[in-house]
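job 3f2a | input accepted
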Amino acid sequence: MEAERLSASDRTLVPNRFVVHLHPTDLAGFEDMEQSLATELADAALVFARAHHYTLVDRPRVDLLADPAVERSDIRVDARFADPIGGRVRPPDDAISDENGVGDLTDPLATMVFAVPRPSAPRARLRVTDAAGVTHEVSIGVGVTIGRATDNDLVIRDERVSRHHGRIAGRRGTLVYSDLESTNGSEVNGHRVTEVVLGAGDQIRVGGTTLEVEVDEAPT
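job 3f2a | predicted structure (220 res):
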């Protein structure tokens, strides 16, 4: 979900359709509970999205697929965005939305209704751990530039880090990390990125340094 998330206007959109690829033998082991397992995984995806204040265009759906190309005991997940399922009945205008803007989650036929606020950027800090394991904290404030040059807000003395490597800035209620076309690139949670919306607990890797995001308070 997080690897495919997108920043759109003042929201962070995440996929709502997931296909879980399993080796046929592994999938056969779930034969008696395949549907309930898929439902539980979809519910877990919804809970995760709500906990991180992500926006879904529809209730998550998970399908389990037998795939001989997947090794035994391994798993592959394809995530994508899909429009709401057709034929659903629109709830009345006074339908109650939950705290994250999703409509009545107890009604399987209800179209998801979003009341998306325009939050201010969260206050946050970075827990910085360098290659030697030394840790300190840096307040992000309105933003922070990262790099080897001394004119950065966060100076990292590492030859693998470019002079101006990356930047964290507030954008429409979110924190966004942007790689500034660095030589060795940036990773967030193990994935190479050029730009990504950040959440609490996300780990940015530049050179041998890890920057973990800690949010002081949720956007309001």
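job 3f2a | Confidence is low (pLDDT under 50) at residues 87-119.
job 3f2a | closed
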